[in-house]
Amino acid sequence: MTKNSMRLDHVVLWVADPVAAARFYTEAVGLEPVRLTEFVEGKVPFPSVRVNEETIFDLAPHTFADRMRMLPGAADSAGHPVNHVCLSLPADAFEALRARLERYGVPLSDIGHDSFGARGSAPRSFYFRDPDGNVFEARHYDA
């Protein structure tokens, strides 16, 4: 595709309850928890979940906003989800994710077809929300 060495490292999601969010992402979405025990023990400010070997979602509590001083106005982003985050999976994992979300009673969009993304046109995709209102797209590519 491209020889760009830049990679997506992490996405910070604002959540009301990081433990409940971690439970959703591990049980319903199938991601691996990172630093959850340390968060519960009060040793780290937020837990994360691993998307793949290179990418995690940080689950930042709304109360963490007052620490967001890296840029003027950064704290104002608390509670404002991004438009959506897209997860690309193999076709069998796509099916498994959809089935798992259905078992958890997560509302799902209809299956979309031929939406454009980083790897071209994906034959199928669908959308869902996490318990904090963050919108996710799941898709798979043929190869």
Pick out its properties.
143 residues; alpha/beta; Signal recognition particle alu RNA binding heterodimer, srp9/1; 2,3-Dihydroxybiphenyl 1,2-Dioxygenase, domain 1; 4-stranded mixed β-sheet; 3-stranded mixed β-sheet; 3 helices; 9 strands; dioxygenase; VOC_core; dioxygenase activity; GlyoxalaseI/FosfomycinResist; oxidoreductase
Poorly predicted ranges: none
- Name the shape in a single word: globular
- The N- and C-terminal alpha carbons lie at a distance of 12 Å
- Secondary structure class reads alpha/beta
Main sheet makeup: 4 strands, mixed
CATH fold annotation of the largest domain: Signal recognition particle alu RNA binding heterodimer, srp9/1
Q: Give me the CATH architecture of the largest domain, please.
A: 2-Layer Sandwich
- Helical content stands at 10-25%
Tell me what portion of residues adopts beta-strand conformation.
Answer: 25-35%
The whole-number mean of residue pLDDT values reads 86
How many beta-strand elements? 9
Domains, number: 2
Name of the CATH class of the largest domain: Alpha Beta
Written as H for each helix and E for each strand, in order along the chain, the element string is EHEHEEEHEEEE
GO molecular function: dioxygenase activity
InterPro entries: Glyas_Bleomycin-R_OHBP_Dase, Glyas_Fos-R_dOase_dom, GlyoxalaseI/FosfomycinResist, VOC_core
Keywords: Dioxygenase, Oxidoreductase
Domain VOC: 7-141
Mind explaining what this structure looks like?
This protein is α/β, with parallel strands linked by helices and 143 residues long. The chain has two domains: 1-80, Signal recognition particle alu RNA binding heterodimer, srp9/1; 81-143, 2,3-Dihydroxybiphenyl 1,2-Dioxygenase, domain 1. 20% of the residues lie in helices and 30% in strands. It contains three helices and nine strands. β8 (124-129) and β9 (135-140) form a beta hairpin. The chain is globular. The mean pLDDT is 86.
